Amino acid sequence: MNNPFEVIEARLSSIENLILDLKHLPKESAPIKNSEQLLTVQDAAHFLNLTVPTIYSKVSKGELPVMKRSKRLYFSSTELMEYLKEGRKMSNSEIEQQAETYLSNNKKGLK
């Protein structure tokens, strides 16, 4: 293997095999992103499935948690997820369970 082209070809083949091995690794073995990500307005719109003007409207009304630096707005993915969870409606069984708990703790009002 004194021919430089053979050396280059062998190295390229080795690199190609490594790349193919990486492509076939399961997704779980990929590095996990930090759960706390800062999002731009466009990213936040995509994350919340809203339009960019709607994002700006909700920010101006104080409905969305936002950070502002200079003229740019940044959103925490964690805070946006909490914002979404605040709008969650309880199921009927959850409501019934809370009602039972409330009534069992406040029996004096039933007499």
From TrEMBL:
InterPro entries: HTH_17 (IPR041657), SinI_DNA-bd (IPR010093). It holds the Pfam family HTH_17. Residues 91-111 are annotated as: Disordered. Residues 92-111 have a biased composition (Polar residues). One of its GO terms (molecular function) is DNA binding. This is DNA binding domain protein, excisionase family. It comes from Christiangramia flava JLT2011.
